[in-house]
Design a protein that fits this description.
Structural class: alpha+beta
Helix content: 40-55%
Strand content: 5-15%
Largest sheet: 4 strands, antiparallel
Length: about 210
């Protein structure tokens, strides 16, 4: 996997994490608005494409956008409005990718990343990072990247390596000293090294690198 594809994968993990928090806030606004309206709650949400729902149904159901806007007292809740806007953007992007109809658009995007061209993966990473930043600023949420104390960057030997805490298993790791790959011959040991690409690795790759962790 090239650094561009790994960066896009990492951005997907980050956005999934922040969207889960945003959805929780939006659903809480819906619950507050539905106090005393058991008929709506009992019937659930109804979408002609995604079917009946008793919650948002994940990030793929546009019914959520309409419901949140309609139920929020005094107008759409800010978190709900942002969630709806991001869902629409993800649905638009996912519509051009392979996948089953009705699939969660973020999942659809993430599944398509390995087969993307380098340019498409780069643009995808930028888009997902932008959306994630928007959500985190709204919620005041911290960065999902956590410092790896005692870890050295295999390229610059700086101790500014961070791992993606919200990713499962072999987490992505980045150097936050803004060092970039110089291409073939770079000491980073990054698979698919590309000149000018930010350094990003799978954690297992860093562990075995010269100057890396022990």
């Amino acid at each position: 996997m090239t650094p561009h594809h790994l960066a896009a994968t990492a951005a997907g993990y980050c956005l999934a994490d922040s969207l889960a928090a945003l959805e929780m806030w939006a659903m809480e606004a819906v619950r507050e608005a539905l106090v005393g309206t058991s008929s709506i709650r009992d019937n659930g949400l109804r979408s002609p494409i995604w079917g009946g729902r008793h919650a948002l149904g994940g990030h793929g159901d546009p019914t959520a956008t309409t419901a949140l806007g309609a139920w929020a007292p005094g107008g759409p809740n800010p978190h709900a409005a942002l969630l709806g806007d991001i869902l629409r953007q993800l649905d638009q992007a996912a519509g051009h990718l392979p996948g089953a109809p009705g699939m969660d658009p973020l999942t659809r995007i993430r599944q398509a990343i390995p087969a993307m061209s380098v340019l498409a993966a780069t643009r995808t990473a930028e888009a997902l990072e932008h959306l994630d930043g928007t959500v985190r600023r709204r919620l005041g949420a911290p960065s999902p990247w956590r410092h790896l104390s005692g870890r050295e960057c295999p390229a610059c030997q700086g101790r500014l390596l961070f791992e993606l805490a919200c990713a499962p298993g072999d987490r992505p790791v980045v150097c936050r000293d803004d060092c970039r790959c110089v291409g073939p011959g770079c000491g980073c040991g990054m698979p698919g090294a590309v000149e000018g690409a930010p350094h990003i690795w799978r954690r297992a790759d860093v562990i075995g690198a010269v100057g890396g962790v022990r």
